[in-house]
Design brief:
Helices cover 19% and strands 13% of the residues.
């Protein structure tokens, strides 16, 4: 049975079963504490960087975003499992995921981020709970902070002040496993050493429970944006974002080649436990495959309805 058929059966079940079994709507489809969202205020922030060590980075430019909500934590296995049970999402075991921990995880991993989820199912999950995937601009502002944090009237040099998704330091903590990233491996390999905040990982892409890295908390209180899993955004890949957006740059979003679809590659943000050292920088951009990958997860966002007059 293909996904479209399964989703059709699930919708029919909602109608015939009446109350219960997720029938009461998206607001009850995310019952766990890690479903909480953080409110990000409307206003400008500085996106991008002149950092020469980071590929695909856009030169710095000011972006104005409407207010929005973003998940405080990455979507966990137990959150995602509810969508699978409802027939709207799937576990994946194809490709690299077959050998690197794809499929349904054991109950002891319930509070770890879901991974090996493809673009279609990440998008389906967020829609199922009444949310959506964030744009890459929304992801970056949530990680680095907006201009109201730097100065009341102008952005200032956020590239220096907000290089990482935490505020107590402007440099990396010391030690190869001080961050959920590969660390400074002698070979420079992007997968040279897989680490968690508590020491070397026991296995390839051995993630950790969300919200257990106290320093990996953005100025707004969004957790795990430097690591654990890299995260899918809704934006198609645009090389020169600064030029493509124009001035003023307001609520940018880059549709895929086929508008209104989720086919093709997207921008992925954030590092992961086996990721690049540069990936912990808030302006790091990577190509996120549409297919399921061991180090790729996601979080959801939501638009804030306009205030009534």
């Amino acid at each position: 049975m293909d996904l479209l058929t399964r989703r059709s059966f699930a919708v029919l079940a909602f109608v015939t079963l009446g109350p219960g079994c997720y029938a009461s709507g998206p607001e009850n489809r995310c019952p766990y504490p890690e479903c909480e969202q953080v409110s990000i205020p409307a206003g400008p922030f500085m996106m991008g960087s002149d950092d020469p060590d980071v590929p695909m980075v856009s030169r710095p430019f000011e972006v104005w975003l409407s207010g929005y909500l973003i998940d405080r934590f990455e979507v966990t296995n137990r959150r995602y499992r509810l969508c699978v049970e409802a027939g709207f999402c799937r576990w994946h075991v194809e490709g690299l995921c077959e050998e690197q921990g794809g499929g349904e995880p054991p109950p002891e991993d319930d509070r770890r981020p879901v991974r090996c989820v493809n673009l279609e199912d990440a998008d389906a999950y967020c829609r199922w709970i009444g949310r959506r995937l964030p744009t890459e601009a929304e992801w970056e502002k949530a990680a680095r902070g907006g201009c109201e944090i730097v100065a009341p009237t102008e952005c200032g040099d956020e590239d220096t002040l907000r290089r990482y998704s935490w505020t107590s330091e402007t440099t990396l903590p010391t030690g190869i496993c001080a961050l959920p990233k590969a660390g400074d491996t002698p070979t420079g390999s992007s997968t040279g050493g897989c680490c968690t905040p508590h020491g070397p990982a026991l296995g390839f892409f051995d993630t950790f429970e969300v919200g257990t890295t106290p320093y990996d908390r953005s100025p707004y209180g969004v957790e795990d944006m430097a690591g654990n899993v890299s995260e899918i955004t809704s934006d198609a890949i645009v090389d020169d974002v600064a030029s493509a957006c124009g001035r003023p740059c307001i609520d940018p979003h880059w549709e895929p080649a086929a508008p209104g679809t989720v086919a093709g590659w997207r921008v992925a943000r954030g590092s992961n436990v086996c990721g690049r050292v540069d990936g912990v920088k808030v302006y790091y951009r990577a190509m996120g495959a549409a297919g399921a990958m061991p180090g790729l997860g996601f979080r959801c966002a939501a638009s804030v309805p306009p205030a009534e007059p």
